[in-house]
Every structure is written in C-alpha cells, then in structure tokens.
Amino acid sequence: MFETPFSIVGTVVTDPVLRRVNDQEFVRFRVASNSRRRTTEGTWEAGSSLFVTVNCWGKVADGVAGVLFKGDPVIVVGQIYTSEYDDKEGNRRSTVEVRATSVGPDLNRVRAKLDRAQRVPEPAEPTGGQDTGAGEEAGENRELPISA
C-alpha cells in the first residue's frame, strides 16, 4: 500500500477513545484544522476546515491515552489514507484518516510539561569476589544517565 506522509496542526474535536484490539492499545479521535485569512479591512475571517480521524496504535496510543482531550491543540504526523464504507441508507461514503506516528501538543497555543520516564541503571555484575577497596557503597556517589 502506498502511504502518503502527512502532518496536521489543529484542535482535537472529539474525546480520544481508548480501545484494545487483540493485544494492542488503540486510540481514535478527530482533529479539525481551520484556516483563517486577513481581509482587506484588516479583520480575520474563517476559511475552510479540514476534519481528519486520527488512529494511534502501540506506543503512540499509550502516550495519547488520558493526556489529550477535546479542545486541545495538537500536531499530528503520520500517513494519510481514505477509508470507504456504506452508510445506513446504502450510500457509498469515504472518510480521511491518519495513522499517527507522532502526536504532540501545539506549543504555539499551549504550554506543556514533559513527563520523562526515568531510566534505572542495570546492576553491576560481580567482579569475582575481589574487593579492591576502591568500590563505592551501593547507591552512593553514582551518576545516573540523563535521558532527554
């Protein structure tokens, strides 16, 4: 399948819904991207709107679930495609969807605080029972790696 790269800056217009599909987390929500243009009088007027369904799987779904809500400004990156279906009256319809590879807050419109997972260092392997006296007591004066 040919996948077209796509990014959208907009507002979440439906609360993200977390589901489990087989053994994977899945989150779906809709985003609206609205354009505005300045008139010759200097005022702003609304332009076209684009509504996109965003599908998140795996780690992206874990990151979105419980963090994003209706009304939040977001940036979504992924592959865009159309999904076709028959409605209740039997009419053929299509919807624009994005399989997200990244989702984040639009920092132009909101402030965010990052919650980084801390890495715990692996315990050191025993050195064969010899103590040179230069070793450190467990948990003292160790530097932990910093992850960004």
Description:
It comes from Mycolicibacterium diernhoferi. The protein is mainly β and 148 residues long. The protein has a domain at 4-105: Nucleic acid-binding proteins (OB fold (Dihydrolipoamide Acetyltransferase, E2P), Beta Barrel). Helices cover 5% and strands 48% of the residues. The protein is built from one helix and six strands; from the N terminus they run ββββαββ. The protein has one helix at residues 58-64, and strands at residues 4-12, 17-21, 24-38, 44-57, 73-86, 92-105. Strands 1-3-4-6-5 form a five-stranded mixed barrel. The protein is extended, with a radius of gyration of 24 Å. It starts with a strand and ends in a 43-residue tail after the last strand.
Instruction: Give the CATH topology of the domain at 4-105.
Output: OB fold (Dihydrolipoamide Acetyltransferase, E2P)
Return the CATH class of the domain at 4-105. Mainly Beta
Roughly how many Å is the radius of gyration?
24 Å
Count the strands?
6
Measured between the Cα atoms of the first and last residue, the distance is: 34 Å
Instruction: Bin the helical content.
Output: under 10%
Named CATH architecture of the domain at 4-105? Beta Barrel
Order of helices and strands: EEEEHEE
Note the total helix count. Answer: 1
- What is the oligomeric state here? single chain
Uncertain regions: pLDDT < 50 for 5+ in a row? 132-148
Give the strand line-up of the largest sheet.
Answer: 1-3-4-6-5
* Biggest sheet overview: 5 strands, mixed, barrel
The named CATH superfamily of the domain at 4-105: Nucleic acid-binding proteins
Q: What gross morphology would you assign?
A: extended
* Strand composition percent: over 45%
